[in-house]
Amino acid sequence: MSTLSDVAAVAGVSKATASRALNGRGLVAPETAGRVLAAAARLGFVPNRAARELARGRSGIIAIVVPTLDNTFFTPIIAGAQARAEEAGFQLTVAVHGPDAPGAFARLASQVDGFLVVAPRGSDTLVVGTSAAKPAVLVDREIDGMTSVVADTAAAFGTLTTWLAAQGHERIVYVGGPEGSWQDRQRTAAVQDAARRAGAGLTVLGPCPATFAAGVEVTPAVLETGATAVVPYATSIGLGLLLALGTRGVEVPRDLVVSTEPTVIEALGLEHTPAIDVDGEELGRTAMGLLVRLLDGQDEPGRQVRLAVPVRG
Amino acid sequence: MSTLSDVAAVAGVSKATASRALNGRGLVAPETAGRVLAAAARLGFVPNRAARELARGRSGIIAIVVPTLDNTFFTPIIAGAQARAEEAGFQLTVAVHGPDAPGAFARLASQVDGFLVVAPRGSDTLVVGTSAAKPAVLVDREIDGMTSVVADTAAAFGTLTTWLAAQGHERIVYVGGPEGSWQDRQRTAAVQDAARRAGAGLTVLGPCPATFAAGVEVTPAVLETGATAVVPYATSIGLGLLLALGTRGVEVPRDLVVSTEPTVIEALGLEHTPAIDVDGEELGRTAMGLLVRLLDGQDEPGRQVRLAVPVRG
DNA sequence: TTCGTGGATGGAACCGGTTCCATGGGACCC
DNA sequence: GGGTCCCATGGAACCGGTTCCATCCACGAA
Fold this sequence. Notes:
Strand order of the largest sheet of chain A: 2-1-3-4-5-11
Pfam family, one (chains A, B): Peripla_BP_3
Keywords (chains A, B): DNA-binding, Repressor, Transcription, Transcription regulation
Protein name (chains A, B): LacI family DNA-binding transcriptional regulator
CATH superfamily of the largest domain in chain A: Response regulator
GO molecular function, one term (chains A, B): DNA binding
Oligomer: homodimer
Number of domains of chain A: 3
CATH class of the largest domain in chain A: Alpha Beta
Number of helices of chain A: 13
């Protein structure tokens, strides 16, 4: 492992100049910079992260805190954040916050430069309090004063409901998400509003955890309403529904339309089925982008970004 | 943020002694150590990770490299590894290796102390070569000379096949996993062996990517064989099968038995359906445990651990 | 009493970068 | 031609720990 001193020696300059040349800061003669860069390349120089962190007083690590890894809604977010972090020269660590969220934050806070917080549930004050120690960006939820980025699924659910009503569906079911979910509150309101405007009957079921099993379980209740269209909170719930409907001989979408996401439609060859298309990677990427700006002081906390969510009718 | 110097000053000792007391190494008089610990507690001292890394020449970070986060087989492994890493005082970063696996390794290698490698596919030499720079533990795959831990699903698949044959199934289908998968080779061999011994007819389909959509797609081919039992490589494939069978009016398990995992059985209320129960968290925990021992020099590379996988008939 | 021994402690070097500050030299202007 | 200013560069301090080595002290043995 070669060090900065080695590079400096080979290039015939001091450590100080070598450091400046490699970081692109400060003023270095182009010719000198070229020599340093060449030397670094030849030696395969990789800066020692620990030394850099110590000198800069920054860890270069960002933590993304998610409730679980078992929900495929979160994983693309992580992937997107990871990609963007790498571009910006940060490392990402994934922390799963179980029941002991505050404890987990406290332990991490001194180790990282900032947080990406994915906390769909839990009280506002808890989220704010635990992530106050370091700059943080809230993902897919909004709290006043906190920087956040959300997929505007509420609007998408509204559009989708309107579309269903326009297709002649007079009885629609919305299967709600987990208890206390911020997004569920938004979506419920949007769906109710859209149904009311369109004059369609709406039944709201739930709360339901965002799992496959919950979708299976809620199926009888859905059928009981006599509805011709279902809008489930999450893809996992929708899959559970589809599976349970299949075993009951209910044909989709002939007997009942179940809204879902494009990948499911494609996989199953469903037709005449509406879908919303949340780009989780984009969500993660954007959130990380905001956090990097916060850390660089290019942005003040509190900015709220909404990403449009396409609806495919 | 208080530093070691602060702690030393408060305790009335030198930095050297304070360090020794806090790390439990070297010899420190019990009375002195007590004073240092008390001072540290009072000041809320948290050692600066970067400084410690720099001095020790160890980063304290371990990377787990997975092919994707979208497969729920990998995520519990990460969770288990994460838990064990925390116990041992390591941080875990999750790296997703896309097409550029060697590049990803090279960039990471200088930043971390070791690797957990989850590489179900890809050639042996590639895996060995890319992870040779740092101590590594291979997860759910075996390569001579590398430390590894695998869930012995091959044995479980064999047992399961035997059980199916004993239940009277004369025609069985095994839906194979992704092309080049090490586990798939093991499982195929085990299933073939068990079927032959039991005198049951076996059709091997595939290769199939471990996705939901692949399960849907393979369904017609499965039905065509006239088999009464299917053993899919992965849970995701099995779910696709179940879904597609439902839409075709094939009742499970009356018309066709589909082996799966316990959580699916429970969710769907399936009966008379065999399941194998891979404990992903345990896999991750064990792998991390092995890596920690490697890093501490308590173990030589090359140890291979197999975890038994229960079969529920 | 003195020497040897070993445990507790402190001083200081060191890990590998970053950055403040001082210095030197060249170009430009008067 | 001389003075000024600015830019490129180097020296050295510093980030906050760890650890080698020397020192000091107390105790037991000769």
